[in-house]
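Colleagues,

Please find the record for the two-part complex below.
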Amino acid sequence: MTTPTARQTTVRLQGVEKRFGELVAVRSLDLDVTAGEFFSIIGPSGCGKTTTLRMIAGFERPTAGVIEITGRDVTALPPYRRPVNTVFQSYALFPHLDVVENVAFGLREARTPRAELRRRVMEAISLVQLDGRERAKPKQLSGGQQQRVALARALINRPDVLLLDEPLGALDLKLRKEMQTQLKDLQREVGITFVYVTHDQEEAFSMSDRVAVMDRGLLEQVGQPEEVYRQPATPFVADFVGIANRLSGRLRGSAPGDRYEIDIDGVGRRRAGGPPGLTSGDQVTVVIRPEDLHLEPAAAAPGAETPRAAVGTVLAAVVDVAFLGAHRTVRLSAGSLGHLVAVGRGQLAVAPEDKVTLSWADDDAWVVPAGPRS
Amino acid sequence: MSFRRHPVAGTMALVVIGYLWIPILAVAVNSLNKSSLMARWGGATAHWYSLAFHDANVRTGLVTTLEIALGSTALSLVIAVSGSLWWRRAPARARAIYDALVYARIVLPEVVFATALFFLFLKAHFPLGIVAIIIGHSVWNSAYAAVIIQARLIGLDPAIEEAAADLGATPWRVFRRVTLAALLPAIIASGLLTFTFSFDDVVTSYFLGGSSSSPLPIVLFGMIRFRITPEINSIGVMVMLFTVTLMCAAVAVFALVGSTGRGRRGAFAEFYGR
């Protein structure tokens, strides 16, 4: 494994913008990808992630901005003069060439001497475990095998950056999981910077060192997977990277320990973490992940007819319980607060129509500005 | 279908097959018949074949035919390949118009194109002859080639050219090593096909040949107007064998490596269409 000694930047995008006529696919994008990093760009379809990747590869020219690769401005360079290689969603293998010739394509273009070419092709083929299939045509290979040919073909040129455009999209779930592990291992082994585009946040989280979330051409947040999940910058990120319980409220002020005080509608005053720079009086959304909600059977207080929630907790009715093997998902209805979701392990003994109290720790609540970002 | 159960349909089928094949069989048999009257079997001979081989008219006719077939094949392939590559990335409406023009060239009667070109060349003072015939044949030949090449093109992932560029190939290298190479089976198949079509054409050649150039089919046509000799039979058999061989090769190439996916609008059926 090769670790970059200094944290050099391999890919740098500065003020990059791409318009297709009226449509703005990517707007004022700044992005730094560190050498040796597994970097993912995620977002819904049409968010500009693939366009961004295609601009790094050189298939699209940005309307504005600069793209640098290892410190060199490549904005105006055609694809064949950039030190990047791409694994395409459709693999784009050459149908008339066999595995060896597909993999050797880049080396032949670079006029690599025959002996070296042979050695490196065989190395690449065994790196992706395709020994024995050297003379097969793409048509004769399974989806997973084609995917690995595409990977070997792109890696053999030892690019500074490997771009991957939803490379696992066409595979079935089991194979997908397998390939995720293999990809991550492979990246560690070759030490090449990976820029990976997917709409599947779980896939991105499981493999990436850092993740960028895009929506409608805008970069919403960049960070480590856990950071993005636990400390989303916008309501969009909160929803996109997982199930988010959202409570609305108004910011009251700061509290010690980088916390904010919030009056949550229908709940009361609570504390929560949040990004710096929020001001009192702001309309905010408090995000709580399903696994952070604690359920307890709601007992009626002595002398009272119906149970009531203590300040800072929520009273809810169980709508249904879905058993998912390792855990179960509980859908809840909480009156004016709408629908909430909690996730618990097996011991959670609740049934539909049970009344429960929901509570959470201050550490597990996170504030984001309500509404779309300006 | 057993003959016993469907006697009428069975008889009809036999009559039709006989009607189609007996004349061809007669030609083949008579090409070896010693009797020049062709009324009865007079013993076997190769005399007529040797006569055909030494006939100067037949020889120049054959050379002319080959020149025309090669020229028309080359021209048709250039038109079909470049047209298909444009068609691949063209907007939907433009593609529809292009398709209509291609099919029109296949469907409209050959004699219409031949007469139209005849008058055009006359007006433009373009000399009739080999070049005129080559252009005339390319009208329909390029359409057949286009249909076959497009069928192959549809099965190609549009990203393969990007993949090649990504791997360091310059635009010219991308075209040579990927686009053209991937299309090669279709190009060979349609080349063989257009060559055959051109080889046995009479109508267009007759209109555009003028007085100087006579390809083989026209030579044969001239010969039977005076007298039917067994020599014609032997030429017919040779032409037939040659044509059938080429057709088989075309079909084999197309079937073995040509079509990825199912081809478009029964391109395979159109293969035999003309």
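Chain B has a mean pLDDT of 86.

Comments are welcome before we finalize the supplementary table.
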